[in-house]
Amino acid sequence: MVCIEITPNIYWNGLNDRTSDLFEGIWPITKEGVSYNSYIIADEKVALIDLVKGIKTDDFLSQIEEVVDPATVNYVIINHMEPDHTGMIKTMQKIAPQVTFVGSERTKQMLEKFYHLNTNFKVVKTGDTIELGTHILEFYDIPFVHWPETIATYERTSKILFPCDAFGGYGALGGSIFADEYEDLDFYKEEALRYYSNIIAKFSRFTLKAINLLKGLDIRIIAPSHGLIWRNPKEIIDLYERWARYGTEPESAEEGVTFLYASMYGNTEKLMGSVAQGLSQEGIPVKIFDVARTHVSYILPYLWKYRGVVIGTPTYEAKLFPPMAYVLDIATSKRVINKEVIRFGSYGWSGGAQRDLEPRLDKLKWNLLEFFEWQGGPTLEDFQKGEDLGKRFAQHLKNFN
Ligand SMILES: Cc1cc2nc3c(=O)[nH]c(=O)nc-3n(C[C@H](O)[C@H](O)[C@H](O)COP(=O)(O)O)c2cc1C
Ligand SMILES: [Fe+2]
Ligand SMILES: [Fe+2]
Q1: CATH 3.40.50.360 location in the chain
Q2: How remote is the CA of residue 324 from the centroid of ligand 1, in Å?
Q3: pTM, whole model, 2 decimals?
Q4: Atom number in ligand 1 closest to CA 319
Q5: What is the CA(32)–ligand 2 centre distance, in A?
Q6: What is the average per-residue pLDDT within 138-156?
Q7: Smaller CB count within 10 Å for the chain: N or C?
Q8: What is the CB neighbour count within 10 angstroms for residue 71?
Q9: What CATH class does 4-248 carry?
């Protein structure tokens, strides 16, 4: 793409990545892609806000050249040290040795460790400013959104907030960089929630703190480091605030069920249909995932927003079926806590899945209401039990608040 002017002399200078399969080496983006957004402010002094991943380096430099000579850049603001925004840092320093990198004290220390660079570095903290000419940059510490060193940059004249990963989302930019120029934002909103649940969720408390701090600013545009630019900032702030609340106020979760199941020979799968039927008859939204066939990246958004979880899993070597254990492990590390849960599953001789499950649920603070197991194939009576279990669980969820 080419540089796109956002407001006079402020440009989007990002890269779309449509060929990487995994973000952070774990989250699938094969179909969706991702953008690394960098910005140029071309005033008397020239500043770049965040860089990009170390891919398509020539494209990135050519884009800068459309606006300014890259050798004349005065400042590179590093809102966040993660390599998807600093991959270009050595190249930038070679091209513009006079450049001053700007970030928090933590960023300075981490840059040295990650890149072993001896750079001009200016440490900033909340309230500090840098004048570029008519544009003035203000800095705000927003630690742990989602690394310890993160800051946000606000440009006073244009009233643009550059919050890096906060308010970001997966999804390469197609057609426009501005959210308001899309007829239908469903794809980007879903991908923003997937990104939130994969990357930011664990730090929801810090995210709410950052939102409260930044809400004091007169923000006209939010320009994050991944995904769309929001000229109606309230839209993305409200979404992020709601998602952060799911992590800090469990009662704000939505009425719905993430239905996780796995089955080797179909015995547990057979009951899945009955339990789901019981839930659906009561009008509860249900999203069903075969955990052995669905990457956890796509499961996390539902676990994050819905209050209920159904776990359908057989016993495997006296424990949970391994892909189910993996999903619960990831949920634990992402702090997907405080859910209402039921469980069912088949076993062959000894069982053991339930014994493996219970301490995991304790760690997650998930409240197990009921479970039932049967040996081998389900009987007609088991099918009925499954349906009744689904109905009771739906009633419980409806009466929750
Ligand atoms: C590799 C493997 C390991 C198993 N380990 C156990 C076990 O330790 N204890 C047990 O009760 N059943 C065990 N089973 C039996 C399954 O739990 C049983 O076949 C169950 O009906 C499978 O349900 P499914 O068809 O939904 O996968 C094992 C099955 C397999 C294939
Ligand atoms: Fe990041
Ligand atoms: Fe990022």
Answers
A1: 258-395
A2: 14
A3: 0.96
A4: 8
A5: 18
A6: 98
A7: C
A8: 13
A9: alpha beta
